[in-house]
Amino acid sequence: MAKKVNKLRDIALNPAQSFRTKKVAVAEWGVDVVLREPSVSIWLKWLKEHRDLGDSEGVSTEETVQRNLETDVEFLINVLLEEDLSPVFTPEDKPEVLKIYGPVHARLVHQAFELITSTNEAEKKSENLH
Fold first, then answer.
1. DSSP sequence for 1-35
2. Sheet holding 31-36, edge to edge
C-alpha cells in the first residue's frame, strides 16, 4: 500500500512557503526581486543590536554606525530572494555586500520590515478567530 501523502504537512514544512513574500520592482537595477519576512533569528538579532545601540556608552559613533550597518546587511542577506525564491546572497557574501550597501539596499530592508506582522495585528487576528 502506498504511503499517504500529506499535502498540508509538505506545504507547512516547505521553507519557501513559511514566510510572507512580496515582489518588488527595483528600478535602479532594472529587475524585480522578492522580499520575504525575516527569519526569527535574524529579526531577534536585529532587534537586540538596535536596542543595544541606545545603551552604547563608551562606544564610538563610528563603531555604532558599523554595527548598525552590519546588522542591516545580515538582514538584507536573509530577506532578499530571486523571483524563484532562491536566496540572492549567502552569509559568506557579507563582506562584499558591506562594501556596496547603499540606499537601494536600505529601502529593500525597510520594505521587508513591512512584511512583519506586528504584535497588535497578530492579537487582532487571534481575537477574530475566537
1. -PPPP-HHHHHHT-GGGSS-EEEEEETTTTEEEEE
2. 21-26, 31-36, 80-81
Residue 25 above 80 pLDDT?
A: yes
Report d(CA 46, CA 85) in Å as an integer: 22
- In the Cβ-directed half-sphere of 48, how many Cα atoms lie within 13 Å? 6
pTM of the model: 0.78
CA–CA distance, 15 with 5 (Å, rounded to integer):
18
Residue 2: phi, psi to the nearest 5? Answer: -70, 145
Beta strand pairing call for 31-36 and 80-81: antiparallel
Mean pLDDT, rounded, for 32-57: 84
CA distance 24 to 121: 23
DSSP letter for 118, please: P
Q: Walk me through the domains of the chain, giving residue ranges and CATH numbers.
A: 20-129 (3.30.2220.20)
Radius of gyration of the chain (CA): 18
* Residue with grid cell 530577506, as numbered in its chain: 79
